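Example S7 (structure tokens).
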């Protein structure tokens, strides 16, 4: 029996944040009934066609779910969604601000009828305040949270290459729901949970904000290097390939100079004697390290770093990650079904030893509508 077996979630969801939260619940055995627009469905279905004709975001976020297509503006669809929620443990929505309330699906209305319901709303900026009705897409929230200002090269601020604001809010929705289930098990009461993308990503900005507010200057944009630690980042080897390394303390720095660079006296250079000085003299430091590594290929450098106990990584592209030997050795890949045939995905990172996670089918729009409505005795269909 999986941890969330017997838990039913109705989710009026779209895009990334809410679907990410509910898919993780599905991985643990919860039943996810995904409400979609008739015909077109969740607009994330149309982001691209790269996965055998389906969207890469959609297949990632929507396995193990049932799709029920309802026109919520029609009397029949309005009645149907209310009946489904009436039989659910958890209701999740990330509609535009105020939309759930206009449909009679706000927390106050639903929990007045069923106090044990866990009601979760995810928005861009929160339910009130001057930004409450402002459109919120991942890039824009990254900007508002200050992330773009500290990411990229010295010349060019950059966004993070994945939907990190959506992912952050989806993760907090997921952990909040699990917490609410524990609370309900003790008190019998559900919960009203509100999350915003800005506040979720803002939690992850804690180091940078402290550094800037209390230190007087923001962390500098340093590309793949670290703003406050050196050497930490990419270095080019003799075969023009890059190796990334991270040195965390003075003992490691001395070991690196002796066993990798072959120049133990570099550790005593007054420019490099402690981390803050190495950051100050980063350009000189980089020249010294590049000169030392130019005698070796990337594979040889990695071998030296491993033998010296220095943290390191090769720069892998997406195919390199998909073929990563560690993931293969640990049997982390599984196949799951979809309308375009079998697909492959990683199993969830939190491994319950002795249990196999749910890796169910990605649904077509509305493919479960008739069956689910009949099961819940909702006689009207849309």
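Recovered sequence:
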């Amino acid at each position: 029996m999986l941890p969330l077996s017997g838990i039913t979630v109705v989710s009026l969801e779209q895009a990334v944040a809410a679907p990410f939260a509910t898919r993780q619940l599905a991985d643990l055995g919860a039943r996810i009934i995904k409400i979609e627009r008739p015909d077109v469905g969740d607009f994330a279905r149309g982001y691209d066609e790269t996965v055998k004709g389906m969207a890469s975001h959609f297949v990632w976020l929507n396995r193990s779910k049932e799709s029920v297509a309802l026109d919520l503006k029609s009397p029949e669809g309005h009645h149907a969604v209310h009946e489904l929620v009436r039989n659910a443990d958890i209701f999740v929505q990330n509609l535009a601000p105020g939309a759930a309330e206009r449909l009679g699906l706000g927390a106050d209305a639903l929990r007045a009828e069923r106090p044990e319901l866990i009601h979760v709303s995810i928005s861009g900026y929160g339910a009130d305040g001057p930004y409450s009705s402002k459109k919120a897409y991942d890039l824009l929230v990254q900007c508002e949270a200050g992330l773009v200002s500290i990411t990229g090269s010295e010349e060019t601020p950059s966004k993070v290459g994945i939907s990190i604001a959506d992912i952050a809010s989806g993760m907090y929705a997921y952990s909040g729901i699990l917490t609410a289930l524990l609370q309900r098990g003790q008190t019998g009461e559900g919960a009203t949970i509100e999350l915003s993308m800005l506040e979720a990503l803002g939690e992850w900005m804690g180091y940078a904000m402290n550094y800037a507010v209390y230190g007087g200057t923001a962390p500098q944009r340093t590309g793949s290097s670290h703003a406050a630690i050196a050497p930490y980042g990419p270095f080019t080897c003799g075969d023009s390939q890059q190796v990334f390394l991270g040195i965390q303390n003075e003992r490691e720095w001395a070991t690196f100079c002796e066993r990798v660079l072959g120049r133990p006296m570099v550790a005593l250079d007054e420019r490099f004697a402690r981390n803050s000085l190495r950051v100050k003299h980063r350009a000189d430091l980089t020249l010294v390290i590049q000169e030392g590594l130019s005698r070796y290929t990337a594979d040889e450098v990695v071998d030296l770093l491993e033998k010296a106990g220095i943290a390191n990584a090769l720069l892998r592209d997406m195919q390199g990650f998909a073929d990563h030997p560690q993931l293969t050795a640990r049997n982390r890949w599984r196949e799951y079904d979809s309308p375009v045939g079998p697909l492959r995905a990683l199993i969830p990172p939190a491994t319950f030893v002795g249990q196999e996670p749910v890796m169910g089918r990605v649904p077509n729009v509305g493919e479960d509508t008739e069956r689910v409505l009949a099961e819940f005795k909702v006689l009207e269909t849309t």
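Notes on this example. The mean pLDDT is 93.
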